[in-house]
Amino acid sequence: MKSESAKPLIGIVVCGLSDNRQFVSNPYIQSVRYSGGIPILLPLIRSDTMLEQYLRLCDGFLFCGGNDITPLLFGQEPREGIGNTNITLDLFQIRLMKLILSSAKPVFSICRGMQIFNTACQGTMFQDIRYQPGESLDHMQRSDSRSDVSHPVRIERSSRLFSCLGRSVYVNSFHHQAIDRPGVDLKVSALAPDQTIEAIEHSSHPFAIGVQWHPECMFRSSEKMRRLFRGFITAAQN
After folding, report:
1. Which region is the signal sequence (predicted)?
2. What residues does 204 pair with on adjacent strands?
């Protein structure tokens, strides 16, 4: 049992691969640190035993943004508009996500991370927002700063997200894909004005939340995003 003052260990799952390197973007690390967690980086490994050790080691887990998910993993073949993929990274993250969801340990998933969350629960994706019914917003903003807001989202009152953010919040937006069908035991907790799914939660897990925007980029400028990270860290501490 951790003492009240003990800081929780937060496993930040590797964002992606570049040449012979694995990387995590700095804003994720800083957001965990300044919210009261101890960030540790979890690299891609091909070992179920090591994944179980990750689970035992960490008090909470953060899945970050990155490239697209291999469409075969959500039951589709590639369509026009799909971006770069890496099935080795996809499978590692999905396996780890399933393991975390089988425990009671908190998991917070951002952008691609939310899409991994959905895929791990057998949900499906629109490979590009052009395939989503109706007229969609441009969800890939081109502002000078990644902390700038792009559009509002409306949050369900019954969601865990509501306790952190209230009924609505303005968010940034850097994605060209979107959730189509939410996975098993997942509920939609926020929508954009064009009905794009902006947040999901696991209905039976103590704290498993995914958001489509990038709160780590808004951490310094938005008190609501700081509250969201603090809520995650508090759940991990408890």
Report:
1. none
2. none
Three-class secondary structure assignment of 26-76? HHHHHHHHHCCCEEEEECCCCCHHHHHHHHHHCCEEEECCCCCCCHHHHCC
Phi-psi category of 51—alpha, beta or left, where left has phi over 0 and alpha has psi -120 to 50?
A: alpha
DSSP secondary structure letter of residue 137: P
Whole-number mean pLDDT of the chain? 96
Q: What is the pLDDT of residues 209-231, one digit of tens each?
A: 999 999 999 999 999 999 999 99
Query: How many of the other CB atoms lie within 10 Å of CB of 140?
Result: 11
Residue type, 100: I
Q: What is the mean pLDDT of residues 34-49?
A: 96
Q: Could you tell me the domains of the chain?
A: 7-234 (3.40.50.880)
- Angstrom distance (rounded) from CA 167 to CA 224: 12
Q: Which pTM was predicted?
A: 0.95
> 189-227: string of b/e by CB count within 10 Å (b at 16+)?
bbbbebebbbbbbbeebebbbbbbbbbbbbbeebeebbb
Distance between CA atoms of residues 74 and 14, nearest Å: 21
Give the separation between CA 214 and CA 33, rounded to whole angstroms.
16
What's the residue count for the chain? Answer: 238
Q: What does the alpha-carbon distance between residue 215 and residue 220 come to, in Å, rounded to a whole number? A: 9
